[in-house]
Structure formats: C-alpha cells, structure tokens
Design goal:
homodimer; 337 residues; alpha/beta; Peroxisomal Thiolase, Chain A, domain 1; 7-stranded mixed β-sheet; 17 strands; globular; acyltransferase activity (chains A, B)
Chain lengths: 337, 337
Amino acid sequence: MSEVKGKQSLRFAKTPFILNSASVVGKKEGEGPLGEYFDVIGNDDKFGCESWEEAESTLQKEAATLALGKSGLTPEEIRYIFAGDLLGQTIATSFGLLDFEIPLFGVYGACSTAGESMSLGAMCVAAGFAENVLTITSSHFASAEKQFRFPLEYGNQRPMSATWTVTGSGAYVLSTQRTHVKISGITTGKIVDYGIHDSLNMGAAMAPAAADTIAAHFADFGSKPEEYDRIITGDLGTVGQEILFDLLKKKGYDIENNHSDCGIEIFDAKEQDTDAGGSGCGCSASVLSAYYLPKIISGEWKKVLFVPTGALLSTVSYNEGKNVPGIAHGVMLEYVP
Amino acid sequence: MSEVKGKQSLRFAKTPFILNSASVVGKKEGEGPLGEYFDVIGNDDKFGCESWEEAESTLQKEAATLALGKSGLTPEEIRYIFAGDLLGQTIATSFGLLDFEIPLFGVYGACSTAGESMSLGAMCVAAGFAENVLTITSSHFASAEKQFRFPLEYGNQRPMSATWTVTGSGAYVLSTQRTHVKISGITTGKIVDYGIHDSLNMGAAMAPAAADTIAAHFADFGSKPEEYDRIITGDLGTVGQEILFDLLKKKGYDIENNHSDCGIEIFDAKEQDTDAGGSGCGCSASVLSAYYLPKIISGEWKKVLFVPTGALLSTVSYNEGKNVPGIAHGVMLEYVP
C-alpha cells in the first residue's frame, strides 16, 4: 500500500518506472551547452509548419513518437496521456496529440506542468490503473512570446531578469516494467503568492513556490538536502535561484551544494543572450530527459528531487493588476540497481 | 483491486463517494428552469468584484467553501484539489483557489473539465492516495465572451447554433466516506476531430466526442443504454443532441429515451434567448450538483452516466484555420442504498 506522507507527499509502494523518454528541441537549444544530449534538434524552429503553434504541436508529436519508439511500445499499449503546454486552452497539446487516439488528461500548471503530468501519471501507474502511460509537455519561444509578451516582429527589449522560453518538448513513458529509474514519491505543490508583480521576473515569482514544495518534501519524508545527489528545479534562472537559496535557508535547509536549475543549464546566458536563463514547460521536460536522467540510469546519481516550477499568470490577469503566484510539483527519482 | 475495463475504462473496487457538492450560479441561470435548485444565485454577475475574471474566481471560491461546509470538512482535511476553467492559463482557478492552500492539480479539458477533474479525483481516492479531495470547475458568460468571442460592449449578433456560456461553478468533495452516491467507474475520452470549423457551433464539434466516449463506455462495461436511468451530457445543446443521437444510432445504440443535456436544461432557450443552450465548464458542474445528484441521492435514479464534453480550440487555433476537435470524459454514478 502506498503511503500518504505528511501534508503533501506520497511514497509509492508499487513504484512506477521511467521506461524511456525523449527530448526534441529547437536550434538555439541545440547550440547551447547541452546540445549534444538532446535526441532531436530542429534546424528550423517552425519544424516545417505554417505557424509557431503548429510547430509546438509538432514538437510534442515528435517527442511522443520517439519516446514510444525507444520504449518499443505502440500507441495502443499506452493507456493514458497526461499532457499540457503554456498556450491558452493548451492548443499545442490538443493538436499535437490528436492523431495518437489515446485517452487524454489535459493538465495545466504553467511551467510546473512537467512535474504535474509526471506526478499524475505516476499515481495512475502506481495505483494499477495502467501498465504504461505517457506524460508530455512543450513550450516554444515564438508561440510563448506571442501569447504572453510581444510578437517577435515587435522587437521589444528584455530586462536582465527575463527568461528565454525554451523551444522544446520532453516525453516520458511511465511503466510497471522495471528499469533503472523509479519514481519513488511525489510532493504536490500549493499555489504560493509572494506578491510579485513583474511578469518579466518569473524566477522571483516561482522561487517561493519552489522553496515551499522542497521544504514540504523534506518535512514529509523526514529527509535532508544532503541525501539527494541533486535537487533540480525547472526554470528559476539565476535570479530565482538566489531567492530559492535564501528562502530555504530561512526554513533551515541549505541546498546550495546540490542544486541545479534546468533553465540555467540549457543556455550559455552570456554567449546566447538569454538573460536569466531558459524557461517554459519544455525546458525542464527536455533537460531532465536529455541530461539528468542518464546520470540516474547509469547509477552516477542515486536520488534526485525534480521540481518544475510554474508562474500562474495570463496577459489578462497581469493587465488587470494581479500578482504572479507560483506553483511547484516535486517528483522523487531513485536509481534501481 | 480496481479493474481495467476494455480500452478506455476503469471500474473501481474501492469506490469513491460524493460526500457533498455545491453550486453557485449567476442571475440569468437563477431565472431559468432550474433556478430553485442551485445553492447560491448571485444578484450581480460581477459578484462584487472589479473584473469578470475576478468574479469567476469568486464563483469557485464560494462553491468550494460551500461544498466544504456542507461536508463538514476544513480545508486541511482536503488532500488535493483537481480544478480548471476555460480561461487562458486557467486564471479563474489560480486566483480562486489560492487562499485554500491545498495541493492543486490544475486540469484543462475545455467544457469536459468537470468530468476530467472528477475522474482524476476519483482515481486518487480509489487508489488510497487521499481520503478527501475537492474537484471544481467554473465558467462565466462575460469572461468567456471576452476570451473567445467579443467583449460584451461590442454587441455582436449570435447565430442560432451558438450556446450561451453559463455563469456558474460546481464543487464536489469525493471521499472514502460512504454516502448514497458512489463513482463506480470512469471512461476517459480521446480527442475526436470530425473537421468542424465553426466555433459558434460547439454542439456539432463536441457531439462526435460524446458519441465516441459513450459508445466506448458501453463496449468496455458490456452495458446497454437502457441500464442507465439517465445519460447526461454537458453542453451539447439542441444542435449537438441531434448529432449525438444520429452518431450513436450508427454505432448501434439508441439513447433518445434516457438522454439529458445540462446545456438544454439550464435555460429556457425561447424565453431566455440562449439559442442552442447553455455551455461552459460551470454548466455541467453546477447542474449535476443542483439538479441531477439529488435524484441519485434519493434513489429515484440508480445508475447515471455523466459525460461532460469539451471543444478544443482557442482564438489563436481558430484564427489559424484549425478545426475544432472535441473530447468527452465519462463518469459512472450509482445509487448506494
């Protein structure tokens, strides 16, 4: 029987495994420090499509197809898809996954969706409701700029605290089949509002939520930062990382020595002019699959807490003067010998 | 052990129960044929707020508070919320549920979200991951018009096939505590695209998805339409209902005698000038809670299939010439003596 741990966590008895995963990213991501690790790098950020939204749908389609192929599974062998993206009414997901004809649970947690979809998928497999599920998320720089900021043609200037939305998608097959990586537990986030108003400083908006979920995780599992080979946040960037360290220190936890942030890793901020780092649903999803997961599979890392973070806003909420609250969903990954 | 049934369904062994629920609606809904059944009817569709979006958040907050109160539970006793709405980046949910400080899984399935959130909540309770969860969805006529069509000030004309977005919210506490209504199973929908292009004919866009999920439900459970006291769709309206009947007849099922549609019931289309009927996440959620659930609780109805339907589009997808695919999620409700 799975254990309900503390206030926000579950430890799975019958742990789901990550059977396989895939990452598909854009040109700029391919030119960054992690370029060699991604499965597919598009030469053309439109991925042969007519619109940015279609391109983002194609990212999802390709990542899903690749994850299935690597897993040796057909779409018929996938019981459910848990998927989402950043666009209004999650249209990248709807049009990207239509052809698979697999029962779909659409999810939305802004950039935390990679953690949310993986949490729900893991719950489903751990409960015996499915042998295999697919979890997938995406983001696209150009569709996100159009949705949240300004169309590319406008050529707006960006403050140093701004993050650069990653063009990418990561897909995961979670399964009862034993592999070297199990999802041993989850810590589900609450909405946390620290009164941040600046939609171009997502890191600051999301860091309190990350701190809240990470601290809840330690409390629920009675664990300490040093037990984890790495605590990986989604896309706090350099600005958010500092805030995260400060907030966690106030709660009695020091994670400076074993923290990584997918948004910081994916770009060379100086060379690639990406300001505070990468962001978006596709950032943490593609970086976990391409760069961090192999370290767990090989046994180099034994225990990892993956905590994608989301900023909860829309242009409407922002223009109506609302704060930008955050949410973060934690997934505990462990090496299986 | 819960049973995986057929291709898209689950039958729960440890069935979750609907501990209690609540409905909050706007003035027009209160003036309609179901007016006497809703828990709260607002006199002012802004619900004392400064914007339509805030008003929609307030709908969720009030419905959630009321459902908790009726259940005799505090927010601390709710393990998870599964919630969503129709707005871009589901902001009605983010700002409506912030104050509860409960771990949140945000979901998006357009108007099918009432069924999706209830399905996920039921899976969570059935798996033993929670004793109590809250599922909640909302829609608001004015925030939806602004999001999807034209601001109210524009005074646009509406074709007869158009539906009227319901201002309302329905909240449900799903629990291990035994009551007179159990969620005995679910049938999870796939995206179904019949090539409908008209965003003002949602009924036609969603009917094929409803037919697909209902037929899958019968096939998975080996059941027949006449075994159900009622098969209740979300918001197909009069135009969608006819298409649903035709499509299901082609699949060998006749549900004409025991079909109801929340969108048809909630308004008096002629008197209230709502064209094809009501729609929105809040339509099926509020109508099930206020009007249909009491019939199961009393034992008048023994078995009901609740199938909210969603149209997957955004103004961006629509303006880029995309079709409007649909999705429908089925929830089987049974009377417990």
